[in-house]
Design goal:
heterodimer; A: 261 residues; alpha/beta; Rossmann fold; seven-stranded mixed sheet; four-stranded antiparallel sheet; 7 helices; B: 289 residues; six-stranded parallel sheet; four-stranded parallel sheet; 30% helix; globular
């Protein structure tokens, strides 16, 4: 589609090829007319990298106060999930496949993952060293007893690590920090690098829950948002991936998918 | 005819489980015709008078139980075979050949001398007070009593503690299984819904007993006991530990690590029990086959 004034080619949606127009509620973002995905106009991944290596975790008191609120949020979410039969079936299958570890990509402090009945959490994060240094801030608020937590520095743009045994990977509040193109590469690496029987969890802001420009998740670090239906379609479009659980919760969305090869 | 006698230099209750897995491996993978097990080497003093009844439990696996105190007797025609480090070997073998080499316990109700319970519907916890010969794996008393109290509040009618030291249980209203009869304990553990235990023989028997849930509470870093060169040299491709070998198709297993001989919260234990309860609800509702 071309501009009616200058005839320049307008940007189209990278997922469905629909028309991207400036989102009236928040003009910092463009929204696809068809799939309702939103992308930040001034999207700059390098800013994210700089922010997370230089500034993040400087204000631990603030981080701690947020986590104290979040812990109840995640507790309620996990209670809901324990009543979801597809989620129960998935957890039982994971146990059957001997999966007792979650690889948390961009996990930082593994707030949601700490609720899963697992023995080990391995966090792959850009600033793993800083998180490791301040792990007490997290473990004082979240119950992680019985779990072994380890940190490894990893740039998610390099994709998900290849494994031979079925694995559980999580992307909690991380994928919105990437452009749709980069996010596709990350999910694609999960589809390629994880063996059959692996599971993946996605938890992130749900764009359908936006009430106005002051929405807490509208900020310069968040480059793309997919509504839940689009996200489910996006995952299911991969031949190797199948969504098992999808639900909106508070102003977030939860997706659990399985690798089927 | 290929006849093997399975043996191990030290044998406690748990090592018996490892040896039986090894025996099944010899039978299924190595096509052994005849498996012999000498009950004299260790059972004499410690277990024979405590009615472990290996002859019943492993009736379908061991072809011949002998009782020969002369352990090194050279008159025997069969080949004596040791798995090496029992824990590492059995984990390795099950990982390699699958659950087909995990023997099934022959639980004969006529041999059981205890009371009748609501079979397959209760939770039992076997505290490992202090861990006498290996302190890091022991559970501190405060932790055990806290866990007992919490499980008792939630699952009162269906919760039991198995212990040989009932005086250490603070809450005197707790239902305790206290018996010298090892067969009865193994029978009780195997017919539980969820078994919670430490790094002990009962936990290994629970693995073979296939309860719906098994929660093993181990010391923080058990790998330090497994020297890679000494114990893992034979089986280098994995971090083998002394976890119970579990039939994952039947049992939901969760391994938890203690810090300073304790867990301070029991969130994950509840999650496993909820998971099993939800599974049962789904089946009863007909949502799953």
């Amino acid at each position: 589609m071309n501009c009616t004034h200058c005839n320049a080619k307008l940007k189209s949606c990278e997922f469905c090829d629909g028309h991207l127009t400036v989102y009236k509620t928040n003009p910092d973002y463009m929204q696809c007319d068809t799939c309702k995905m939103q992308v930040q106009i001034a999207s700059d991944t390098s800013f994210n990298k700089k922010f997370y290596s230089d500034e993040y975790l400087n204000d631990l008191e603030h981080e701690s106060s947020i986590m104290k609120i979040n812990v109840q949020h995640y507790e309620k979410l996990f209670k809901l999930l324990t009543k979801n039969k597809d989620h129960v079936a998935s957890l039982l299958e994971m146990n059957k496949l001997n999966i007792d570890e979650c690889q948390c990509y961009g996990g930082g402090f593994p707030q949601l993952e700490s609720f899963y009945p697992l023995s080990k959490l391995t966090i792959y994060d850009l600033i793993a060293t800083q998180y490791r240094k301040h792990i007490k801030v997290f473990t004082n608020i979240y119950d992680t007893d019985g779990m072994k937590i380890t940190y490894t520095a990893h740039d998610l743009l390099k994709g998900v690590k290849k494994t031979t045994n079925p694995t559980f990977v999580s992307f909690s509040h991380i994928l919105e920090h990437f452009s749709f193109q980069d996010m596709s590469k990350i999910i694609s690496s999960a589809a390629n690098n994880l063996p059959d029987g692996s599971y993946g969890l996605i938890y992130q802001p749900n764009i359908s829950a936006v009430k106005g420009k002051t929405w807490v998740h509208y900020n310069i670090q968040h480059l793309s948002f997919l509504p839940i239906d689009t996200f489910v379609k996006f995952i299911n479009d991969f031949d190797e991936l199948e969504v098992k659980v999808s639900m909106s919760y508070s102003d977030d969305l939860f997706i659990l998918f399985r690798v089927c090869k | 005819m290929k006849t093997y006698e399975v043996f191990h230099t030290t044998i406690n209750i748990g090592e018996t489980v490892a040896l039986m897995i090894f025996a099944k491996y010899l039978k299924m993978i190595k096509n052994a015709d005849h498996i012999v097990f000498n009950t004299a080497t260790f059972w004499e003093d410690r277990y024979m008078n405590r009615s472990i009844k290996v002859e019943t439990l492993f009736k379908d696996l061991i072809d011949e139980f002998i009782h020969d105190p002369d352990v090194k007797s050279k008159d025997r025609e069969h080949i004596r075979k040791c798995p090496g480090n029992a824990w590492v070997a059995t984990q390795y073998l099950v990982a390699k050949y699958g659950q087909q080499i995990m023997p099934k316990l022959n639980l004969d109700s006529s041999e059981y001398t205890g009371e009748q319970y609501d079979w397959n519907n209760y939770i039992c916890f076997s505290p490992l007070w202090d861990g006498e010969y290996n302190p890091p794996r022991g559970m501190n008393h405060k932790f055990c009593n806290k866990l007992i109290d919490e499980l008792n509040v939630t699952y009162r009618d269906n919760f039991y503690v198995i212990t040989d030291k009932p005086n250490l249980v603070r809450n005197k209203k707790i239902k305790i299984i206290h018996t010298d009869n090892l067969y009865d304990i193994i029978y009780f553990i195997s017919k539980s819904k969820v078994y919670i235990g430490g790094d002990t023989g009962f936990t290994h028997f629970a693995g073979l007993g296939r309860p719906r849930g098994l929660i093993s509470i181990y010391e923080e870093d058990q790998f330090r006991h497994f020297n890679r060169m000494r114990h893992q040299g034979l089986y280098p491709n994995g971090n083998w530990n002394s976890d119970p070998v579990v039939d994952r198709s039947k049992t939901v297993h969760l391994h938890l690590n203690m810090i300073n001989n304790a867990l301070s919260n029991f969130k994950q234990i509840h999650h496993v029990i909820n998971l099993i309860d939800e599974e049962r609800i789904c089946i009863e509702k007909g949502e799953w086959k």
